[in-house]
Amino acid sequence: MSELLKNQFKKIIEITDDEYDYILSHFITKKFKKHQFLVQEDQVVVYDYFVLSGCIKSYYTDENDKMHILLFGTQDWWISDYEAYYFKKKARVNIDCLEETEVLCLSLENREKLCKEFHRIEHFFRKKTNRRNVALQNRILTLLSSSAKERYEKFIQDYPSLVQKLPKHILASYLGVTRETLSRLYSTK
Amino acid sequence: MSELLKNQFKKIIEITDDEYDYILSHFITKKFKKHQFLVQEDQVVVYDYFVLSGCIKSYYTDENDKMHILLFGTQDWWISDYEAYYFKKKARVNIDCLEETEVLCLSLENREKLCKEFHRIEHFFRKKTNRRNVALQNRILTLLSSSAKERYEKFIQDYPSLVQKLPKHILASYLGVTRETLSRLYSTK
DNA sequence: TAAATAACTTGATCTATCTCACATTTTATT
DNA sequence: AATAAAATGTGAGATAGATCAAGTTATTTA
């Protein structure tokens, strides 16, 4: 079945087909329709999600109902509210679908079980988390040091395929500008 | 010797004194004076640093020579340019000392060796990185959704002891505002 | 396929924050 | 202790980006 996750493992660790089957048995598959929620604010976060297909967004809504996007999830990405997931808190963010989306769901208990049973799986997740770290750090750098226009152009470079499918006001909210400003950025070349 | 690191391990994993001695033998100790560099832009990053005492900053310098602070390191914190460290690239940031600082240095080779030899150490680093991830995510959230004043007040709440020892223009650059603006934020209560 | 809803654009105005300039205070250095 | 070098404060003016408002174009949904 899903070769996507297996391939992601294989980029970092060695894994037999039998092992993979066993590991996969710790995940459950879910399908969500457009606009459906995977995670809702103030609720418990049971899973980390590995995206098989589709596209989802994780966002925080402030006092003025303004949405701030933390992360997109497309094929091959992991996404969750990690603070809530790891530390069993209530979610601060919402995660919902920009289009029909299929995910593999891993509970914290199963994640820790697998990490305990397979040193290699723990290794895999450590490496993954390291990379996420680097990406987050770089986003902070960009937010601190670049103008709205520069951030927009960097996004196009980094995620050309995402730019296609994202509504502009969603992209704006990821970049930290209003939709009006974003609209002006690419008209006023 | 250094109980600091041992205690940090013990918060997450079990470890005997003998094991700790062995692990510690993979670190080297270094002392730096104020203004000395631990990491310099465009150079190789050999170590991840665990701060025993003192205070350091990690910052990026943009085309206009404006400094943007990514991270402070004080007692009990790990700090490095992780993109350069993990992926053996040249550093994008500088890391230097705000005061005399003593650190434990861990090379990537020794880190990976320890992770291979002790499943528990790999577990420790995974957990640590998870927490760092959450902190970085929250900083992004703050940068996206809060005003300069709100960010300043949050910093005071989160790191009261750091506010004391940091020069204001350094704090400003962490918060993503100019020193002039920061100065006005706390005069115009 | 019409009606309703969501997405996008553009103009006019407003505002938080930046820039530049200079004065004052604090901290290093000889 | 004297001098140089950083750090800080404050005013005046500039500006990137926000807000508010209205109109247009897509995309859903019934």
UniProtKB/TrEMBL annotation, chains A, B:
Q: Which InterPro entries match?
A: cNMP-bd_dom, cNMP-bd_dom_sf, RmlC-like_jellyroll
**Which residues does the UniProt record annotate as the domain Cyclic nucleotide-binding?**
30-117
Q: Which Gene3D superfamilies match?
A: Jelly Rolls
Annotated Pfam families:
cNMP_binding
Coiled-coil residues are none
- The name under which this protein is listed is Crp/Fnr family transcriptional regulator
Q: Which organism is it from?
A: Sphingobacterium tenebrionis
